[in-house]
Design brief:
- The protein is built from five helices and no strands.
- With 113 residues, it is mainly alpha-helical.
- Among the domains are: 38 residues, no CATH class; 31 residues, no CATH class.
- It is elongated, with a radius of gyration of 33 Å.
Length: 113
Amino acid sequence: MASNHHGDQDSPISRKRSHVQIEINRPIYTEHEFQKGYKHLDKNDSNVNKIKKKIDKVEVSPRCLWRTVSKLVPIIKWLPKYKIRSDIIGDTLSGITTAIMRVPQGKFGNHYM
C-alpha cells in the first residue's frame, strides 16, 4: 500500500505536535552570592569597554580620512572639478534623454531596448 504522506501512520511527516520538556537544575543565588561568584566580570573590563578603549587610541590621518569619506560620498571628490558653464547643458540634456527613455521602459516592463 502506497503512503501519501498526508496522514498515514507510516508517514515521516506527523501532524501531531510533540511536547518537549527540558529540566534545568541550577542553584538559586542571592544578590550577595551572585556578586561574589561573578566578581571577576567587572563592568569596567567588559569587551565593549575594551573595544572602546582601543578605538579611543586610534589616530586617523587626514589623508586616510579623506580617502575613506570620498569613497563613501564620491561627489565630494569630483564636484570641485566640475565645470558648470561648459558641462551643465550637456549633462542636463543627457539626464532628460535618459529619463524619457528609461521611465516608460521601467513602467511597462520593456527591458529589451
